[in-house]
Amino acid sequence: xxxxxxxxxxxxxxxxxxxxxxxxxAEQDKAVEAGGKYVARHRERGKLTARERIELLVDxxxxxxxxxxxxxxxxxxxxxxxxxTGIGVVEGVECLIVANDPTVKxxxxxxxxxxKSFRAAEIAEKNFLxxxxxxxxxxxxxxxxxxxxxxxGRGFRDLTRASARKQPTISVVFGxxxxxxxxxxxxxxxxxxxxxxxxxxxxxxxxVKMATGEESDDETLGGAEMHSRISGSSDFLAVDEHDxxxxxxxxxxxxxxxxxxxxxxxAYAEPDLDPEDLLDLIPTDLKEPFDPREAILxxxxxxxxxxxxxxxxxxxxxxxxxCVGWAKLHGHPIGIxxxxxxxxxxxxxxxxxxxxxxxxxxxxxxxFLHNTTGYMVGAEYEQGGIIKHGAMMINAVSNSKVPHLxxxxxxxxxxxxxxxxxxxxxxxxxxxxxxxKSSVMGPAQLAGVLEIVARESAEKKGQPFDxxxxxxxxxxxxxxxxxxxxxxxxxxxxxxxxxxxxxxxxTVLGICLSVIDNQPIEGAMNFGVFRM
Length: 532
Fold this sequence. Notes:
By secondary structure, the chain is of the alpha/beta class. The protein has 19 helices and 17 strands.
């Protein structure tokens, strides 16, 4: 006779997280395979895919941090929004790389492509990264041109402003770069075109004929040889795609690029606790709290020379629902704010504001680890000043000048999302775990509020409240809010920079901190008025 072993809470959590990670990989595969049958056709023409081009461009053995791979998820457009973006090391230089995916509608840009490209440009600007565009695009997705045309000009503005900041821009043209797409190489500092493949023109032969009556062909109008020999719009003529990538790498090698920020500790220890166990931490019910120190000690540098204690907690006995303290990550000093219990009260808000000021005083980046239901409500807490104390924390977050990194591990509801440096507060990078949920409030709470309002409204009108009939409405609302708060929905709307496997958190944050060090860090000297 066999006995069934009871599953431990840790095993249940791991199983749930592993299922979410498997689902995440399936969703990410949709972006990789977005071109469908057109990938084979693309290869038959002797061309590399967008990701193959990136793989050859970056230094061998180095990591490529893909950003926003799920952009457009849940929309009418392909997952990934016909662009591949991310940070890669080229000839030892960290670069922001943007590659059109020509297997998805010829690389045409849709509204989500635009949003994704704008965020990529913002990352390049704030972290002072050279940008490499791997260009092959038919321009705007014409059926959605009304959503693209006006805001789309910002992309060209960003290119020219980057050049003015002495932030190099490189365009490697592999195929058609038409209409608005022609301005990407046209406004880049360095341009490489592939012989007999690159076609760069404001208007192709059919449109030229319609506009002027002139008969022309692709090569005469905008071919790589013409632009390299006659117009001067190309700086280098590559014989094929591999040669173009070689020329791009040589261009980066000659940029004379140097980091201006701090040099991190060269030697550092791996975490004292196994990052693999991060899968055991997050409860399946996010109402159940977990100790964020368990996550912190699996992300930050472990005990070693110059780092006798992995995490030095600040004010541990005060405002215990928020854990804050100092650590190092890949040798980079950081301050960490992590929700120890879901709710934030006045003590936690004041503690956070002080800690953020201290980080700015000593020019130290901040890492926010979310698992919050928001600020505490109720008469006792209102009378105790929860509004002004929450405002104090948000004031500190808003006016802090040191770089912020955000990881949403669990819940991120209401104004707690703001106080913990959500997307609206411009973190340098924001990532979510597959367990994350974010909305105005939890689904059950929101549905409950609607029921209370409906009941009070009926009473004011002197009408009976149909409690049984409202059950179906509550269920519908809860389902809708639950679906809208899931990480894929938020990632699809480009409200994060990617959904990541918890075990990759340390590596991802290490890349981000390295990128941040392209420039010196200077904390804020002044904050807004704190209501005391």
